[in-house]
Specification:
By secondary structure, this protein is mainly β. It is 0% helix and 51% strand. The chain has strands at residues 3-7, 10-12, 18-25, 32-39, 46-51, 57-59, 67-72, 77-82, 91-101, 114-115, 119-123. A hairpin with a 6-residue loop joins strand 4 and strand 5.
Amino acid sequence: DVQLVESGGGSVQAGGSLRLSCAASGYSSDRRRMGWFRQAPGKGREGVAAIGGDGSTGYRDALKGRFTVFKDNANNILYLEMIDLKPEDTAMYYCAASSREGGSWTLVQGLYDYWGQGTQVTVS
């Protein structure tokens, strides 16, 4: 079975940084699309950043320049580097992965087949 386990969340002050990790087991991340999503209290889940199966990367417009997504295919780990964090970044952050190979990056949630349990990020 495919399992995605996020880690690296925590509580930070505004302006701080965090690096989130998503370790995939039973899954090969090479040539497969993976992404990060988040859900703030009382809001719907929204896309944050993604890497396509073709290696392309993309971000939610408002997060460009502060968030960086990258992947370690040798170890099947997806990362999200976040800098200059703001209180509005407070949310549960989820990792997602596609079962299919190829394709460019996307933040369309329906194109992801596997989801992690999330890691909480709190910015004060």
